[in-house]
């Protein structure tokens, strides 16, 4: 970093000020759970959630939101909060925004003009029982608190690294139609029964549905979808390069599109491998457009996007690990998940040679702008996945030496 290899020369990084920009801004009260400021948004997907705001194509809006944890985590070294967090409260998102003229079959075009933190504190915990594909290796979990300073994040729990910002919304999307929501529930219910998807029926008590109350709240909460997975509407896509400067094309399923976003991230590696990025409360500055009939014309059934031009520039300054769908006596046919985990485990074991604990190494790989790519899925029987860790986030040289 000292030699200037990390730069944001393409980005025009700015922090939009608190002054009046002539843009409607919906403010989040820092430290207050969504249920206590429920007019701001929701934490489930459903087409009958009342809109927060209505605008025309071409309009802009700033949406503030709590972090993914709904202010359950604290800036303390004590890690009790990661053992007691209620995951049914995760992903408080702000909206919906109703865009006039949007109809099913259209494309809603969302330009992500900027994303900035609110409190300046971030979290990237390995949660007990929820630590991604390596959760069995880290059953106790690991808590990390990050201080967000301008375009860099540092942590007292993971010393010796400085993570550059590549800020983006983890959850961003439009409302499903009633028919699409029913389809989601049909296909996910068997997985819920096998503990392979987030619970719905037994998690309704913590559903926040903006201003709905009483019988209407009960009706909507009973079938509303959890925000944990990404789906056709977008949702929890967790794509690190869907950052400031991106343009996202969402197929529209209901009149007005009903757009919402939240779960903002300061930075993240491909795969968000621990289940956490550097999570933060923050503000997203957005501009809306509309392509009439665009979803039908271009055959777009899931969101498409133009990636952000805002990227830390590491050049060729990475060390890359190759994982396969074969290890020791275990062999799987073109299993990219196994190959990805194999690459990550090599990265973890490598970083422990430089003084990091396995928990710290796992966290670094999840939150730093690491690149993960499918190297091959045709050379049967082995898939290959590469994991590239940027060298210049460290305050020491981590390349192999003679």
Annotation, overall tally of beta strands: 23
Any idea what the radius of gyration is? 21 Å
Question: Judging from the principal axes of the Cα atoms, what is the shape?
Answer: globular
Number of helical stretches of at least 4 residues: 6
Low-pLDDT sequence parts = 1-15
Strand count, sense and closure of the main sheet?
A: 16 strands, mixed
How much β-strand is present in the residues? Answer: 25-35%
| Overall average residue pLDDT | 93
Distance between the termini: 23 Å
**SS content category:** alpha+beta
Helix content bin: 10-25%
Protein name: Acetamidase/formamidase family protein
InterPro entries: FmdA_AmdA
Pfam family, one: FmdA_AmdA
Question: TL;DR?
Answer:
It is built from six helices and 23 strands. With about 400 residues, it is of the alpha+beta class.
What tags apply to this protein structure?
402 residues; alpha+beta; 3-stranded antiparallel sheet; 6 helices; 23 strands; Acetamidase/formamidase family protein; FmdA_AmdA
Give the arrangement of secondary structure elements:
Blueprint: E1 25-26, E2 41-42, E3 44-45, E4 53-55, E5 60-65, H1 80-84, E6 93-99, E7 107-123, E8 145-149, E9 152-154, E10 163-164, E11 168-174, H2 178-193, H3 214-223, E12 225-226, E13 230-231, E14 234-236, E15 247-251, E16 259-267, E17 278-291, H4 294-298, E18 304-306, E19 318-324, E20 326-327, E21 330-331, H5 336-351, H6 358-367, E22 371-376, E23 384-390
Parallel strand pairs: 1-5, 4-6
Antiparallel strand pairs: 2-6, 3-12, 5-17, 6-16, 7-8, 7-15, 7-17, 8-9, 9-10, 11-14, 11-16, 13-14, 15-18, 16-17, 19-23, 20-21, 22-23
Helix pairs in contact: 5-6
